């Protein structure tokens, strides 16, 4: 399954729990917060000042 910037963090972590480490390393330390699970990758990146295109590319590498 290809990861898109419109994917919700909760959906991403349910289908690809191994990707949590990449998100944490990028600076998203709020993965346990219930509200963050309903955010899209794009929304979370905007809040944390992360380049969403680079993060999605990294998430899709493996």
Give the helices and strands as they follow along the chain: HHHH
Helical stretch tally? 4
Mean pLDDT, to the nearest integer, reads 91
Shape: globular
Biggest beta sheet attributes: none
Helix content: 40-55%
Radius of gyration: 10 Å
Alpha carbon gap, first and last residue: 11 Å
Structural class: mainly alpha
The beta-strand count equals 0
Approximately how much beta-strand content do the residues carry?
A: under 5%
Would you give an account of this structure?
With 62 residues, this protein is mostly helical. 48% of the residues lie in helices and 0% in strands. The mean pLDDT is 91.
Write the layout of secondary structure elements.
Blueprint: H1 9-15, H2 20-26, H3 41-48, H4 52-59
Q: Features of this protein?
A:
62 residues; 4 helices; CHP03980_redox-disulphide; DUF1858 domain-containing protein; ScdA-like_N_sf; mainly alpha; DUF1858
Brief overview:
It comes from Candidatus Merdicola faecigallinarum. The protein has about 60 residues and is an all-alpha fold.
């Amino acid at each position: 399954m290809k990861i898109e910037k419109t994917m919700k963090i909760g959906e991403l972590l349910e289908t690809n729990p191994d990707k949590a480490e990449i998100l944490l390393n990028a600076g998203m330390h709020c993965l346990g917060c219930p509200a963050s699970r309903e955010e899209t990758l794009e929304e979370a990146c905007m809040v944390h000042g992360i380049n969403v295109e680079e993060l999605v590319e990294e998430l899709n590498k493996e």
